[in-house]
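Hi everyone,

Forwarding the result from last night's run.
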Amino acid sequence: MIGKPSAFCIQKIQEHLFVSKEKCLIIDDRLETDILMGKSYNVPTCLVLTGISACTMFK
């Protein structure tokens, strides 16, 4: 079981896809999981506003 945010999760994704962090894009609708993981480990992110997070949650 892998929890997010996790450096181990990022590493396993890179190994599975054979790509560097710079060539990845994490797309998610939650600021506190995948988006936080991307920001914490220098992976580009894209927040979609179709789920739990809203524009009012960030500046």
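The chain has a mean pLDDT of 84.

Cheers,
N.
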